[in-house]
Amino acid sequence: MSTVAIVIVTSDHAFCIAKCLESVLESERPSVPDIIVVDNDSVDGTPAIISQCGGSVRLLQRQGRHSLSNNLNEALASVVADYVLIMNPDVVLAHGAAAAMSEFLDSHPGSGACAPALLFPDGRLQLSCRRFPTPWSFVVRRTPARVLLSYADRGRKHLMADRDHTDVQPVDWLLGACTMFRTAALRSVGLFDEAFRLYCEDIDICHRLWSHGWSVYYNPAIRVLHEHRAQSDKHLLSQHSLWHYRSMLHYVMKHGREGFARPCLK
After folding, report:
1. Is the Cβ–Cβ distance between 88 and 177 less than 8 Å?
2. Are the CB atoms for 42 and 10 separated by under 8 Å?
3. Cα 55 vs. chain centroid, distance in angstroms?
4. How many domains does one find in the chain?
5. Residue 16 and residue 14: Cα distance in Å, rounded?
6. What pLDDT score does 260 carry?
7. 3-state SS assignment for residue 54
8. What is the pTM assigned to this prediction?
9. Which domain holds residue 233?
10. Dihedral of the CA atoms 61, 68, 78, 50 (nearest 10)?
11. Is the peptide bond before 121 cis (omega within 30 degrees of 0)?
């Protein structure tokens, strides 16, 4: 049977981490996987909450703030499982969700990653499988031009709103809130690029998986809840938006025209 590790990065997530870890522990009983929580120098009591979860949860407490990619790579250095589920701390797993994802990867040996459908707490579907960005999709989603455009013009194709989200399907990339990776695939592409402070590391890793011959799948038969605070979407001029702009610039400089290629979807 394939083995699974779960990696969660926290940074002042005391408001949600207990619920997240409780869902992980209950979802996968009786075979609770290796759970690694990397705390990114929280000051709100998050580490104390994590420590109360018992020996099945391993806490890596960092000093100073690091990029999300750096925190993920710190945890991945000690992962020996066949698959690793990378989760945001505001995700709540449904019963057996991690096991279902690992079974899917078992049955798709050429797949480097898969992700479930993400639902808002009220049950609405999040558009979490997406096409690779284009210069136009960046302009209409991340610049003031978006206030002049309707939803249909504001990245509808980028968000795959024109596709059936009830179908299991290969996709360009997956929102990184809850994605299971084949550990060998991650290592074959060099893990996460630490130049991405926050945002776009999920686009980049999926692009590199496709470029190295691994497919990426969306599986809506598996569903999990995700609060999805979307900090960079709320304000055009904010620290989170600045990080998003810088990450997209790094993505474009790194991949050039190939970063907009369609290895999967047309």
Report:
1. yes
2. yes
3. 25
4. 1
5. 6
6. 72
7. coil
8. 0.90
9. 4-260
10. 40
11. no
30's CB contacts (< 8 A; 6+ apart) are: none
DSSP 8-state class, residue 264: S
Residue carrying the six token digits 């998003």: 244
Give Dmax (Cα) for the chain.
Answer: 53
Alpha-carbon gap, residue 112 to 98, rounded angstroms = 15
% the chain with pLDDT above 90: 67
How many residues are given for the chain? 266
* H-type alpha helices, 164-258: 183-189, 201-211, 231-234, 239-255
CB 216 within 8 A of CB 209: yes
- Give the 3-state secondary structure of residue 8: strand
200-217 pLDDT, tens per residue? Answer: 999 999 999 999 999 999
Residue 266 covered by a domain: no
CATH number, position 110: 3.90.550.10
